[in-house]
Write a structure and sequence with these properties.
With 99 residues, this protein is mainly alpha-helical. The protein contains six helices and no strands. The longest helix is centred in the middle third of the chain and has 17 residues. It starts with a helix and ends with a helix.
């Protein structure tokens, strides 16, 4: 039988993240959110790429509440001089899917 104090120590500190919030994160926000977690290894652009894909899927499946904010974030990434090529390509595909 597991020791209750050990089981408590293994519980995740957080249950999830708001994907629209993640798109607005800076590198410093990512570091702070994942401090002390194995997720700190996830690269900034990979995190944003995944959030873009998941949000685009949600909007395409009918969650229209997120669409305007998602499009604003997509526009911000398009205008960014520092966005990686992978992130720019993801934005291009997401914009095509959103119409």
């Amino acid at each position: 039988r597991a020791n209750p104090s050990h089981a408590e120590a293994l519980k995740p500190g957080r249950q999830g993240f708001d994907l629209l919030e993640v798109l607005g994160w800076s590198e410093e926000d990512r570091r702070a959110a994942f401090q002390g977690s194995a997720l700190k290894r996830v690269k900034y652009d990979a995190l944003k790429r995944n959030a873009l894909i998941l949000l685009t899927n949600q909007v395409c499946q009918g969650d229209l509440e997120a669409k305007s904010t998602l499009l604003e974030q997509i526009h911000a990434i398009e205008q960014s001089a520092t966005a990686s090529e992978v992130l720019r390509e993801t934005v291009r595909v997401c914009r095509m899917r959103l119409g």
